[in-house]
Amino acid sequence: MKEFIQSLPKVELHLHIEGTLEPELMFELAKRNDIHIPFNSITEVRHAYNFHNLQSFLDIYFQGANVLINEQDFFELTWAYLLRCKEDNVMHTEIFFDPQAHTERGISFDVVVNGIHGALVKATTELGITSELIMCFLRHLDEESAFKTLAQAQVHKDKIIAVGLDSTEVGNPAGKFERVFKLALEQGYLTVAHAGEEGSASNIHEALNLLKITRVDHGVRCTDDENLVKQLINDRTPLTVCPLSNLKLKVFEHMEQHNIVTLLRKGVCVTINSDDPAYFGGYMTDNFMAVNQALPMNKIEIAQFTFNAIEASFIANSEKQRLATATQGYLDQHQ
Ligand code: ADE
Ligand code: ZN
Questions:
Q1: Does the beta carbon of 245 sit less than 6 angstroms from any atom of ligand 1?
Q2: 283 CA to middle of ligand 2, Å?
Q3: Of 197, 226, 253, 301, which one is the catalytic site residue?
Q4: Nearest CA to ligand 1 atom 10
Q5: Per-residue model confidence as pLDDT tens for the chain (335 residues)
Q6: Any idea where the Adenosine deaminase domain is (predicted)?
Q7: Which residues are documented as binding site for substrate?
Q8: Is 169 a catalytic residue?
């Protein structure tokens, strides 16, 4: 099954580019930019990646991002991720970035976007990987900061397809950003939000109703509310689930307890994604493998995650058709 999963065409919809910063690159950039990091070796860094909840991870994640200073740094970070995509046959990826994690440190919005976007353009021609960019607001910061970030994005609107919401879920309800999301929608952005990762099923309701989101990022706590699950099935609302992340952040204690395969079999549009692969121990293939190892599936079920992701993606219908045909062809060949 490893070979089938490795070469299966994939689409990633939940990936924080700052979460792809591998310790090796972190050290290299820290040295190049003369930034102090509180680790003496790569082993020490990996040791620190022992999280007990979302917040304990976020503290390390924001600290890691401090080594990113120049456009070239953002380019190299993104390019390294795209090379990993190629290994895992990820054909299309929709990437989150957290501008406020950088602008708060005095790095300009333009430096961040131009570095990331440069690598995405290169990947289209050199790797045959297509992509979209989603700008996330940090929910632990205030509404004013989010409005300011939306204004900074204005000149880069052609490079950004959607806005999202991430960082500390509990204590920072979706309603805090209702007005910012309303303006973003008026400006033509699509909207997504992290909800029901650590927070309750009611947070998913709130994000759907107040932020008009087209996808729920994580959303695994939906199973606490049977009616919500029915609604997600009826509306084909996609969930961008991140299995290894959920394990590392103790959303589920064991992969055997994860609800992703149950949700798939019920007809929810669930997808598999890597979230912050450098921190959570795996990219796309690793996530598929981990789920299948704990909760064995047949090949049609495994490929359904790709069909769901194609359906849930923000690409044109003609492009969706092209990816679906490639995936079906692969499945037919390997039955
Ligand atoms: N930022 C990066 N990864 C995140 C996650 N899993 N949840 C919330 N915010 C994040
Ligand atoms: Zn996430």
A1: yes
A2: 13
A3: 197
A4: 167
A5: 999 999 999 999 999 999 999 999 999 999 999 999 999 999 999 999 999 999 999 999 999 999 999 999 999 999 999 999 999 999 999 999 999 999 999 999 999 999 999 999 999 999 999 999 999 999 999 999 999 999 999 999 999 999 999 999 999 999 999 999 999 999 999 999 999 999 999 999 999 999 999 999 999 999 999 999 999 999 999 999 999 999 999 999 999 999 999 999 999 999 999 999 999 999 999 999 999 999 999 999 999 999 999 999 999 999 999 999 999 999 999 98
A6: 9-324
A7: 276
A8: no
Q: In angstroms, what CA-CA distances link 238 with 46, 179, 241, 253? A: 32, 23, 9, 24
3-state class (DSSP) for residue 334 = coil
Tokens of 46: 């990996």
2-333: CATH architecture: Alpha-Beta Barrel (3.20)
Which residue is associated with the tokens 């972190």?
Answer: 26
The residue behind tokens 């290169």 is 122
Ligand 1 site, residue 64, Cβ cutoff 6 A: no
Any atom of ligand 1 within 6 Å of the Cβ of 197: yes
- The amino acid at residue 80 is A
- Name the closest-CA residue to atom 6, ligand 1: 275
Nearest-5° angle of CA 101, CA 105, CA 107? 90
CA of 332 to the centre of ligand 2 (A): 33
